[in-house]
Amino acid sequence: MSSPRCMRPNPFRARSEARAGLCSHGGYMPAETVWVRGRSPRQNQTGRALPAACGLERVARGVAVGMLVLLGMLPALCAQTLSLRIEPGTIRKGFFYNGTTVQVEGIAPPATNIVVIVRGDETSELFNKKGRFGPLWINTDRIHIANVPAIFLSYSSAPIPSILDPSSIDTYQLDESSLKRHLTSRCHCNCPTIGPVQGRSIASCKGVKPDPQYAATIRDSFLDLKQRDGSYQFHPGAVQLAASPQGTHYSLRLDWPNSARMGAYQVEVYACKNQSVVARTVTPLNVVQVGFPLYMADLAMSRPWAYGIVAVLTAVLAGFTIDAITSRLRRRSPRRVSQTAEVAAARAPDAAPEAGSRVLEDRVEQEPVHRS
Fold first, then answer.
1. Which residues of the chain have pLDDT under 50?
2. Buried b / exposed e along 45-67 (16+ C-beta atoms within 10 A)
């Protein structure tokens, strides 16, 4: 039994019914008829009716060609894929925080070397230069340094100069030399704040640009200071590589520096081959404050008077606690002296008991005794 022909759909419902493939009376349209607005059945430019099967064949051919192209490009895409996973993704600093370890791992293209960079936002910092004036050390200059990352941790599977050309190293700022080249400094600065400066560019500084020799001394001293406090670290050969069916598996365990401030940091991974970067990926790493330290920081910013009262009460309570502990320890000290004297008397039976008792009395008199 052939399918009944449906009537022309309502003009207001023609488009929606044509998309759904329904007739106006709720039944399905025949397969050979496709209703569109203004035409029934579907016609080409010459006015001839086109079967629906012709359009489906074209769609099927297009899908097949697209799948073949995608399958042909799949090996090349997989070869250049660089994945990255960080554990933990957020470092939480609470009251009992005592450092943490970050695990970095992923899959890189085959036969590549890996460079992992943990970088903070660029910041400006002010420092006082110390100079010797006779027997004393005094401030002789104020230095303004800009265009430097707050944190810079460099890890690689091999020494970076051996796996990348100098231009790539300088473009991505991957080693100590590239950091020095991008550093900008001013001497005789009159900016009032010491340490990290937020919202103050070096262009607004009224300091003087140092001569080349003085600028080199400033750069060397700055990087030496950052390396000593753990903010800048360089670890060639720290990234472990292993072959896998998907490519090269890399892994790294790094100790997060305690000098890192709260904020957002970037973990950058570079896959290097033939002295160039073939793949790169970036993942954020957040450091946040939680618990009691966060509450005290918010209290200090929002209610300074309340923060001052809490700080004074905490100091007084700590003083009473220490005094109670030391008093208890002093009360126990005469008993230990008496036990030591008894042991000495037992080891020397020929000694006169009067001498032993006299030594005991002298030691007890020297130790203050607090009576309750």
1. 1-6, 12, 14-42, 44-46, 49-50, 74-79, 355-356, 359-360, 363-365, 369-372
2. eeeeeeebeeeeeeeeeeeeeee
Q: How far apart are CA 240 and CA 238, in angstroms?
A: 6
Q: What is the mean pLDDT of the chain?
A: 76
Beta bridge partners of 266: 119, 284
* DSSP-H helix ranges across 12-51: 14-20
Closest C-alpha among 311, 256, 317 to residue 287? 256
Residues 235, 257: contact at Cβ < 8 Å? no
SS (H, E, C) 224-242: HHHHHCCCEEEEECCCEEE
Token pair listed for 139: 């401030």
CA–CA separation, 14 and 24 (whole Å): 9
- pLDDT, residue 127, reads 86
Q: Which two tokens stand for residue 115?
A: 């460079």
pLDDT at 337: 54
Q: How far apart are the first and last CA of the chain?
A: 112
Work out the percent of the chain whose per-residue pLDDT is above 90. Answer: 33
Q: Cis peptide leading into 88, omega within 30 of 0?
A: yes
Q: What is the pTM of this model?
A: 0.61
Cα(316)–Cα(23) distance, integer angstroms: 86
Whether 277 and 270 have beta carbons less than 8 Å apart is answered as yes
The DSSP symbol for 13 reads: G
Q: What is the DSSP string of 171-231?
A: HHT-SHHHHHHH-EEEBS---S--EEESS--GGG---BPPPHHHHHHHHHHHHHHHHHTTS
